[in-house]
Design a protein that fits this description.
globular, mainly alpha, 191 residues, 5 strands, two-stranded parallel sheet, 8 helices, three-stranded antiparallel sheet, 8% strand
């Protein structure tokens, strides 16, 4: 959702240093996501922006936007609302287990080396028609990790009760199988 807000801010031409302007865009923009588990869809004022939010400009700007308390407050509320709706939902993000849903029954902190995450992101970019630029993607991954883990509000870190899963050497199928097993184990323990 932070990427959707970032796109809205960029489209509005708001300077990222203008905290009030960015906050106003965040509070006045209609954001939504799809609920189809087979498709990751993001909407800005009803427009499908799923591909556009993965672009270079959004990637370079999302940490600045997401670090603002007014943006975080709005999106934490939205994420909590989404998670509280009927049915099972998986919520992912850099502060879900520590800030957004600290009482979640199952918390998993997925990680991988910066190189692995950059390769995966670059592969997604190429598949979506963006330029193949692994080195730039790797630099962005490292930059964003640093910014997000050192920000004052909701820094990137694993919740103390999260299961940390390093996926660096796992295929997508292996990750899914492992996560399903963890959810099953944790869900049974909660009952």
């Amino acid at each position: 959702m932070y990427r959707i807000v970032t796109l809205a801010v960029l489209r509005a031409g708001i300077d990222l240093a203008d905290q009030d302007g960015v906050g106003a865009v965040a509070s006045n923009t209609k954001l939504s996501v799809g609920f189809d588990p087979d498709e990751d869809r993001s909407y800005l004022d009803g427009e499908d922006v799923s591909s556009e939010i993965r672009g270079d400009q959004v990637t370079k700007s999302v940490s600045a936007v997401s670090s603002l308390p007014s943006v975080r407050t709005r999106l934490v509320d939205l994420q909590r609302t989404l998670a509280g709706e009927p049915g099972s939902v998986v919520v992912e993000g850099r502060d879900i287990g520590t800030v957004v849903l600290p009482d979640a029954d199952v918390k998993i902190y997925l990680t991988a080396s910066a190189e692995t995450r950059a390769r995966r992101r670059n592969d997604q970019n190429v598949a979506a028609g963006f330029i193949d630029d692994y080195d730039a993607v790797l630099a962005d991954v490292r930059r964003r990790d640093h910014l997000d883990s050192t920000r004052a509000v909701s820094p990137l870190r694993a919740a103390s009760d999260a299961v940390v899963v390093d996926t660096s050497e796992m295929t997508e199928s292996e990750v899914i199988a492992h996560l399903l097993q963890l959810v099953k184990q944790r869900s049974e323990a909660v009952r």
